[in-house]
Design a protein that fits this description.
- This protein is mainly beta.
- The protein has 2 domains: about 210 residues, Jelly Rolls; about 100 residues, Jelly Rolls.
- Strands 1-22-19-24-18-16-17 form a 7-stranded mixed β-sheet.
- A hairpin with a 2-residue loop joins strand 20 and strand 21.
Length: about 325
């Protein structure tokens, strides 16, 4: 593969194209300044304005959210896995029907495999614009987002209506639901009762990995972070490994599925049969299946990256939090 061909599979941080109207809370005060990015796969955006950087199926989706201080992403749920790692900023993740069942604060490099089956949201509690990178299970990202009822109600007060097909319509722009299309119904009390309310102590130990803990475990070989035998045991349809300078191998290797490299710190030189490229934090590289390649730090200093690859496991829910 030529360098030009491979460059089309690299999404540079500085070239990310945001969508500011990706979801139903795009006009809701407190959530109206967030930017959403769809990097690999179709994602779960509800807006036709969302730009998809790489549409090649990988068995999972890669996205990102960028938010200024005090900006919040509203309570929602997914039918498949949702994993975040903090690229920059300081973030509070919260969950539960009203967002008060539990919470955890994440710093740069920390990763959170959010349990399926619970409402979750997050906000930038730092002092600067922050970015979190996301991995969503499955090529279709689970068929969309399930919103807490109050989010749909608040959005309607600010002109946004979501159709039962998962498409947004802005009444302030004169848009209306097409004939024969109903609005997205809010969940009933019976449906809401199926969403558990786990406390922080029930979630954090098996679903959050701290950056420096991963660094310590990756001192000789890449650390398995998410996987059946990982630090955060799960089988969400993909595996996540953490690689540092100490555990980066100079040996050329290949995978039978497309894989993704996502630097957290430092600059990484990726060599393959046909060329090389350098990645920086925030860049995302899709490595084709069966391509011999290797990734190594290209400069001195702290260096780390996440490696993501699909597995044969079903991308649906693999763990549901238990209340209490």
């Amino acid at each position: 593969m030529t360098p030009a061909e491979m460059e089309r599979r690299i999404v540079r941080y500085g070239n990310l194209k945001p969508c500011k109207t990706a979801f139903i809370d795009a006009h809701t005060p407190g959530s109206d300044q967030k930017e959403n990015f769809t990097i690999i796969g179709g994602g779960v955006s509800e807006s036709p304005d969302q730009h998809v950087h790489i549409s090649i199926p990988h068995g999972f989706n890669i996205g990102a959210a960028g938010q200024p201080p005090k900006c919040r992403n509203s309570l929602h749920s997914h039918r498949t896995a949702e994993v975040f790692f903090v690229l920059s900023g300081r973030w509070r993740f919260f969950w539960g029907r009203w967002g008060d069942a539990g919470e955890v604060t994440l710093e740069p490099g920390d990763i959170f495999n959010i349990p399926t089956g619970i409402f979750r949201g997050f906000e930038n509690i730092g002092n600067d614009y922050g970015m979190i990178m996301a991995i969503l299970g499955g090529d279709d990202a689970g068929g969309g987002v399930i919103w807490a009822p109050q989010v749909i109600e608040d959005a309607a007060d600010h002109g946004l209506v979501l159709s039962q097909e998962g498409k947004l319509y802005d009444t302030k722009k004169g848009q209306a639901l097409p004939d024969g299309i109903d609005p997205m119904p809010v969940l009933t009390a019976q449906e809401l009762a199926a969403f558990p309310e786990p406390e922080s102590a029930d979630v954090v130990p098996n679903h959050v990995a701290r950056y420096w803990d991963m660094v310590a475990l990756a001192d000789r070989a890449p650390a398995k972070v998410i996987g059946e035998t990982g630090m955060l045991p799960d089988k969400p349809g993909f595996e996540v490994d953490f690689v540092t300078r100490a555990s980066a191998s100079g040996a050329m290797h290949q995978h039978n599925k497309p894989s993704v490299l996502m630097p957290v710190r430092g600059h990484w030189r990726v060599d393959w049969d046909g060329g090389s490229a350098t990645l920086a934090p925030g860049d995302t590289m899709s490595v084709p299946e069966n391509l011999m390649h290797r990734a190594q730090p290209s400069m001195t200093g702290d260096a780390s990256l996440f490696h993501v690859i699909a597995t044969e496991d079903q991308a649906g829910p693999t763990w549901v939090a238990q209340a209490g």
